[in-house]
């Protein structure tokens, strides 16, 4: 079915990442990762606010009283009322890595992957942040951890290493936060022409993946079948999220300059694409407790 695609009025990000719809306040949040900036707007990209933090920002999630923020070195709470950061935990990360993509699960934890910042192959990991501030490494050997999201029932975790292109799935125990054996669900480089960047799920359980090098967002079934690939107007789409009052807008951040290999020459690179007219809405994101 046809879709409507346009660009929000929101300001340009160098490395746009981690779009997040706050269903409590009906606000859209996202980050300019390497610049260390946190942005917020209404559903149409207007009524904007911006905060500059003291480190690069990997990702954000909803939390009681505000947001949970993954900065380079650890997890922090962000008070959306006064803009103050307070430390929560610092996971034991390898040298030459920083925190990157993250999502809250359906039970109140926050999962976040690290990525290499230099040439250390496989130095990244996947961490779980529990409600009491304890952290645990639950996967290792990662280059650039991405595509964290959960099935609607919360019992399946999806995750990818952007460098190998494979979208994985794991059985996820919501009572303990434990994961089962890794299963490779789909090779996005073969079926989508790109490694997987950020990802989200819709209410029907389909997985939407930013195909950063293919300038598209791919929709996969829970069994790994490519159902649809939607070309987008900006290069280097980085992460999708459903939002809007009815959770029926798919927002997609993009990259103007990653600070490394991805540099776009499009005059509107780094803005947010909004896709309307999809046949199923998203679901509200989990809240870290």
List key phrases describing it.
289 residues, Neuraminidase, five-stranded mixed β-sheet, four-stranded antiparallel β-sheet, 25 strands
Structure, briefly:
Helices cover 1% and strands 49% of the residues. It is mainly beta and 289 residues long.
Give structural notes:
With about 290 residues, the chain is an all-beta fold. The protein has a single domain (about 5-289), classed as 6 Propeller (Neuraminidase). It has one helix and 25 strands. The strands form six sheets. A five-stranded mixed beta sheet has the order 9-8-7-6-25, with no helix packed on it. Strands 1-24-23-22 form a four-stranded antiparallel beta sheet, with no helix packed on it. A four-stranded antiparallel beta sheet has the order 2-3-4-5, with no helix packed on it. Strand 14 and strand 15 (about 155-160) form a beta hairpin. The radius of gyration is 17 Å and the shape is globular. The mean pLDDT is about 95.
Task: Please describe the topology of this protein.
Layout: E1 4-7, E2 16-22, E3 27-32, E4 37-41, E5 49-52, E6 57-63, E7 66-71, E8 75-79, E9 85-89, E10 97-104, E11 110-116, E12 124-129, E13 135-142, E14 145-150, E15 156-161, E16 166-171, E17 183-187, H1 188-191, E18 196-201, E19 207-211, E20 216-220, E21 226-231, E22 237-243, E23 249-254, E24 273-276, E25 287-288
Parallel strand pairs: 6-25
Antiparallel strand pairs: 1-24, 2-3, 3-4, 4-5, 6-7, 7-8, 8-9, 10-11, 11-12, 12-13, 14-15, 15-16, 16-17, 18-19, 19-20, 20-21, 22-23, 23-24
